Amino acid sequence: MMIIFIKFQISDREKNTLAWKSKTEQAKKGETLRELQKLNVQIAALEREKATHLYSRRSDFRGDFSQLEEIDSKSNDEKKTEKIKLKQQLEKISHMVKRFHMELRDIKPTPEFVEKLKITMEEIEGTINAFKEQQRKQYEELMREEKTTAQEIQALERKFESWNQLSEPVVSKKPQQKPLASARDITKDLPQEVAQFEKFLEETGGVRGGWDEYDHQTFLKFRQRHNGKEIFIQHSLVAIPTRTEEEIRDHEDWYQSYLSLNEKKKESIKKWRKKKEEDKDDVISKVDQQLEDEEAKKEEKKKKKEEIIQTEKRERYKQLNSYRVQKELERAQAEERKLREELEKARKKEEERKRQIEARERDEVWERAQKDQQKEIAARELVKFRERDKKTVLQRLANQKAKEEEQKEKEKRLEKLKGQVEIEVSRDPNRLLQPTAGWTSRTKDKGSSGTGPLLHIPHRAVPSWRQGP
Description:
Layout lengths: L1 H52 L12 H40 L5 H54 L16 H7 L4 H13 L8 H13 L5 H9 L5 H176 L16 H13 L20
Helix pairs in contact: 2-3, 3-8, 5-8, 6-7
């Protein structure tokens, strides 16, 4: 009784602990959902502002931010794909938990069922832990990228500030037209070589030096064909009748300047990228160091958490083992009861079989006695039947003999009568057509009475309306 009371106390304590944990988790869940809702509202507002100021068709900077728009669209697609994958994983875990609840509704006190429940619990726990580990790694990667990006932005801001402090490049003596505001805004934060190249293009008419597409391509075709020798100018003069020799030579000078500045721009961009990579490596090394420190802290927390989990597992295994021992004891008692019942059934069945054998033997003895008695009666009756049949046969033979004698006497009398009444008549064919004696006497009687042949037969009277004309 004391053990049962202690068990009830433990179960009540566990119920209270579970209820407290459930309330705490629900409160945390509600707080997290509210925080997520606020973040979603802020994200939606930022998205609207971004679409209005950066990606709008009316904006002057749409061409500059087109690449950023493509990256943003790609990132949104990746987020949607990741959201679908997360939803599928959560649905899978939910399905496994529901299936486990369904199995708990129909508990069977067998070791196989307990082992099956254990395997299912371990499978669910492994799936949840794998999902948590995967999400933890993804969040750490995102945090690392966020820190790296923030530090890169800070480094770029410092670079831009240093570029602003540099002296302005010398403006050409013959500016053709004032550059646009958007172009000035773009080139002021670029490296010096890149800015010089952009200004050169703006001042000289773009990448074709103010020429149209056809004339410039023809110029390049002949220049490449003759490897930049003087002879290509004469061929170009024939192929481009709208241009003079002086214009072609000026265009050649412009093209050489274009190639020189373009090469300087490429070298400058290469150096800038190299410098950027070096800065990025420094930033990444710092971020990696910070992440390693954070990783060490997380590993320590993880170890503590694993120790707590292992302790809880051991407690659960102890409870499961006690439950298993209890179920084994109940199963053994049930098997013992079943064995006793089977032995009792076997004993009753044996007694019933013996009783049936004795009854069958008594029936066989009685049937043999009945058969012997019936044989004796049948033998006596058979003798009687034979005597009666013999008498009947003799009587039937006597009757048959008397009938035969009577038939013979009858035939003899008929023979005698035939002998007494024998008539002999001669054959007369004419006699066949002569009237008989009866007919002759009849005609004689009619003649004597005065009646002649019948000439008129009376009929009923016919009405006048039926007599006709």
